[in-house]
Amino acid sequence: MDVICTGCSKRYKIAEEKLPSDGVAYFTCPKCKEQIKIEVPSKKILLSTGEKTVATDLQGFEPFEPDTKTALVYCPESQARELLQKELIGLGYEVRLINQQDDIRSRFRYHIYDLILLYQNGPEAKDDLTNIQEYISSLLMDMRRKIFVVYVHPRGNRLDSMQAFSIGSDLTIGLSEIGNLSKILPSAFEAKEIAYKVFFECKAKVEEEAL
Q1: Which CATH architecture has domain 69-195?
Q2: pTM recorded for the entire structure
Q3: 46 partner at 20 to 30 Å CA-CA among 7, 36, 92, 209?
Q4: How far apart are CA 86 and CA 197, in angstroms?
């Protein structure tokens, strides 16, 4: 299916088997970040092995309504993961879990998530966590600045901005603070918005003049 972005007119080809079977789908244009609406025709996909209809593997594609706050969470520990989900859902986020680099890579193909939360319990980061960090660091700077990354680890200190910067995150917190995210995050978001306010204003002006 051919899709044209209404924001920058860039054309995309999206495999129909990756779309929901009916209804309306949305994805974010990687170039201009415009929310693109896709009218999906009603259809059934039959596998060649028979007439049985099966659910399509979306491989990271998921339609979100415009202005939905979205978060990805990496946390191997079930108890901490449940607490993190509870806190983020309380803040109005649609939360999705990731376990390895392939998970975050496939999800970012179609949507830019607002928040990423990474959890490290031991003294050293596991390979999956390190690989996820590498992927985040590889994102284009314009995209990365729109994402808020929280890193939870035993020596996390939310007052130490250099600690956060050194591991490629926007905020570091200790393990004992995960139950206070609803109190910690709003002020942290505000601080980042102020820090990048001039950057995004200048970027918007340049893009407007380029049209």
Answers
A1: 3-Layer(aba) Sandwich (3.40)
A2: 0.69
A3: 36
A4: 30
